[in-house]
Amino acid sequence: MISVLFVCLGNICRSPMAEAVMRHKIAQQGLNEKITVDSAGTGDWHIGKAPHEGTRKLLDSWRISYEGMLARQVGSRDFVDFDYMVAMDDSNVANLRKLPGGEDSEILKFMDLLPDEKLREVPDPYFTGNFEEVYRLIDAGCDVLLDRIMKEKL
């Protein structure tokens, strides 16, 4: 089983959106038995909470399920358990590097999947309010990541 972890700051906006979108794409490809996806935050403020209302509304509009998703904090064990660790911005990468096991682990910055985009970080809609822009980036990046996983691991 190939495993992917999306990481953002609080695990209520960007990373759960990416988790839900990626799960949806995996299901569409019939790969549920081969790829698993999760998300986590580097901070602990929202542990146990459902995704942000803006994320839920946007996913509902696209008929993408987020059922059962609750925020959790990333831990050292995640560096062992996940094949792909994907961070939403430079701050998330830096925070992951500070964790035991993170200093030498491969961490992919999400926007590196989209080299033609001007933005180099996925903006945090918790602060910007622009969930549509984040969805556009996540949808495109998840397509690239899924294609990469299929070429590299399947």
UniProtKB/TrEMBL annotation:
Residues 2-148 form the Phosphotyrosine protein phosphatase I domain. Its EC number is 3.1.3.48. The active site is at 8 (nucleophile), 14, 124 (proton donor). It comes from the Bacteria. InterPro entries: LMW_PTPase, Ptyr_pPase, Ptyr_pPase_sf, Tyr_phospatase_low_mol_wt. One of its GO terms (molecular function) is protein tyrosine phosphatase activity. Pfam families: LMWPc. The keyword Lyase does not apply. It catalyses: O-phospho-L-tyrosyl-[protein] + H2O = L-tyrosyl-[protein] + phosphate. Keywords: Hydrolase, Protein phosphatase. The keyword Hydrolase applies. Belongs to the low molecular weight phosphotyrosine protein phosphatase family. PANTHER family: LOW MOLECULAR WEIGHT PHOSPHOTYROSINE PROTEIN PHOSPHATASE, LOW MOLECULAR WEIGHT PROTEIN TYROSINE PHOSPHATASE. This is protein-tyrosine-phosphatase. It comes from Paenibacillus uliginis N3/975.
